[in-house]
Amino acid sequence: MSEHQNEPWHLDKRVPLALIGAILLQTFTIGFWVSSINERVTALESFRSDSKDVAADIAVIKSQIIDIKDTLDRIDARSAAPKR
Questions:
Q1: Which letter does DSSP use for residue 81 in this model?
Q2: Which burial class, exposed, middle or buried, applies to 76 when counting CB atoms under 10 A from its CB (0-12, 13-18, 19+)?
Q3: What is d(CA 34, CA 23) in angstroms, rounded to the nearest whole number?
Q4: Total domains in the fold of the chain
Q5: Would 7 be classed as within a structural domain?
Q6: Which residue has the higher pLDDT, 68 or 14?
Q7: Residue 2 is assigned to a structural domain of this protein
Q8: How do residues 5-60 score in pLDDT, each as one tens digit?
């Protein structure tokens, strides 16, 4: 047992090249997958940031429409009032 502890690590010749290739392919595939997930998350974060700006713009437009409606209601009330 002590003989094996002193030997440096080495790759056994019985390990098939197909196994080494499969491990390398899996490693590359996982790296590619993680990269694509990172791109998707970045795109979603950008979309979320943009949608917050749109939501703020919609709130401003809604406020302006309410003001316009109030103005139109006052104009309508004045025009409907009997003239003296």
A1: S
A2: exposed
A3: 16
A4: 1
A5: no
A6: 68
A7: no
A8: 777 777 777 888 899 999 999 999 999 999 999 999 999 998 888 788 888 899 99
User: Cα separation of 41 and 31, whole Å?
Assistant: 15
Max Cα separation, the chain? Answer: 118
DSSP for 27-72, written as a single string: HHHHHHHHHHHHHHHHHHHHHHHHHHHHHHHHHHHHHHHHHHHHHH
Let me know if residue 58 belongs to a domain. Answer: yes
**Amino acid type, 34:** V
Given the structure tokens 């104009």, which residue do they identify? 75
Locate 29 and state its tokens.
């595939």
Global confidence as pTM: 0.46
Give me the phi and psi of 70, to 5 degrees please.
-60, -40
Q: Which amino acid is at 71?
A: T
Q: Above 60 in pLDDT, residue 76?
A: yes
Domain that holds residue 60: 14-79
